[in-house]
Amino acid sequence: MKKIYIFGAGSLGKYVYELMKEDGIFGFIDNSEEKQKQGFMGKKVFALNEVLEKKEEIFVIIAVAERHYREVYQQLCKAGFSASRRLDLLPHCDICNP
C-alpha cells in the first residue's frame, strides 16, 4: 500500500486531511521551510526532496491554492511523479476555489 502525502500545508491541505485522515495520511509536503519545521495537523511536513527517493512508494495529493498550482504541478512532474502517482485536485473540484 502506498503512503499518501498531501502537497500543501494550508487551508486546502487541512480540508483534504480532514476528509481523508481515516485513510492514513502519512504527512504533508510543502515548500515552506517554516511549515517543515513546525509540522501541520499533527503530521510531519516534508520538503519535496526528502521524499524523492521513496517516490515509487508514495501517492501525492496536490492541495494548494490556484496561484501555487502550476509551480507545484511542475515540481512534481520534474521530479518524476507521473499521473498515476498523484491526484491534482484543482482541475476537478469546487473546494479549490471557495
The stretches of 5 or more residues where confidence is low (pLDDT under 50) are 91-98
Distance between the termini: 32 Å
Taking the sheet with the most strands, its summary is: 5 strands, parallel
Structural class: alpha/beta
- How many β-strand runs? 5
Number of helices: 4
Radius of gyration, whole Å: 12 Å
Mean pLDDT: 85
Side by side, the strands of the main sheet go 3-2-1-4-5
What letter string, H or E per element, gives the SSE order? EHEHEHEHE
Helix content: 25-40%
Task: Give the percentage of residues in beta strands.
Answer: 15-25%
* Apparent shape: globular
Keywords for this structure?
98 residues, alpha/beta, five-stranded parallel β-sheet, 4 helices, 5 strands, globular
Task: Tell me about this structure.
With 98 residues, this protein is of the alpha/beta class. It has four helices and five strands; from the N terminus they run βαβαβαβαβ. The chain has helices spanning 11-20, 33-38, 48-51, 66-78, and strands spanning 3-7, 25-29, 45-46, 58-62, 86-88. Strands 3-2-1-4-5 form a five-stranded parallel beta sheet, with helices on both faces. The longest helix has 13 residues, at 66-78. The N and C termini lie far apart (32 Å). The model is unreliable at 91-98 (pLDDT under 50).
